[in-house]
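Reagents: none. Just compute today. Lysophospholipid acyltransferase family protein.
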Amino acid sequence: MIYGAMKFSIGGPLKLAFRPWVEGLENIPAHGPAILASNHLSFSDSFFLPAVLDRQVTFIAKSEYFTSPGVKGKLTAAFFKGVGQLPVDRSGARGAGDAAIRAGIQVIESGGLFGIYPEGTRSPDGRLYRGKPGGLARVALATGAPVIPVAMIDTEKIQPPGRLVPKLMRPGIRIGEPLDFSRYHGMDGDRFILRSVTDEVMYEIMKLSGQEYVDIYATAAKRQIAEDAKNKGTERPGA
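Predicted 3D structure written out:
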């Protein structure tokens, strides 16, 4: 009920204002579970993708978005629930990793669409980074659900870091054919299998998006960029 109202109030205006183009909608099953594995260029990815689908897709979000006090906190919680975000508690020895896997399995077992960003964070420069072998592969192998690769295109240009007002332009979404990993059933404890599954999905995303692939994690790239900026700022003129 809440999701339908939020999809109407947010998805409709979003499509009207930005007119996203979509390819491959026929690859989304009308019924039954599936995992949507997407590249991650912008905060808006989690809004544009659900806006063009007829079915609800559930992503995960940090639990703090759902538990903040006051009127603003309640409005924020209602918003994230309304757009299909699922709270994940990041506490514990392994933080969000295990919680995300449990959440994904629950969505799949209920017959829903589970959305995940294998890179684990937004790309710092528009390139495609190495997928993390945890959540995506473990949920796929534990449930047997098909993995559908998705490429978000140009969403990072709509509202780059530091820009307050979004730029009105047409982003794109390419949805690939489902990938079947049933041949690896029961092998979710094998780290080499988890890496193989993740790399296969990332390869399909790369083909769909046309992005340059970088074989390091995006989190490492962000740390390096921050370190380079820090070092540049501390350099003495003329040194």
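The chain has a mean pLDDT of 85.
Action item: order primers for follow-up constructs.
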